[in-house]
Amino acid sequence: MAGQGSGGNVIAAICSFFIPGLGQLVQGRIMAALFFFVVTAVSYALGATVILFFMWFVGAIFHLWAIIDAARFRGVD
Length: 77
Hints:
Helix content: 55-70%
Largest sheet: none
Structural class: mainly alpha
Order of helices and strands: HHHH
Distance between the termini: 10 Å
């Protein structure tokens, strides 16, 4: 990636918008991609239950974090 604000980061952020962690995977950050996907998916799944409805909010926060993280990634210089 060329750096923050580059076209690659925009594409990665768009990917993370649709599937959390996909943008990090596009950038080659496998562990970050796995973290964002699993935490967001589990939070949304728990939020689908009536008992843990508040987990939708936690999932949304991690989803937004995944998008912002993909957009602001600078890479190794």
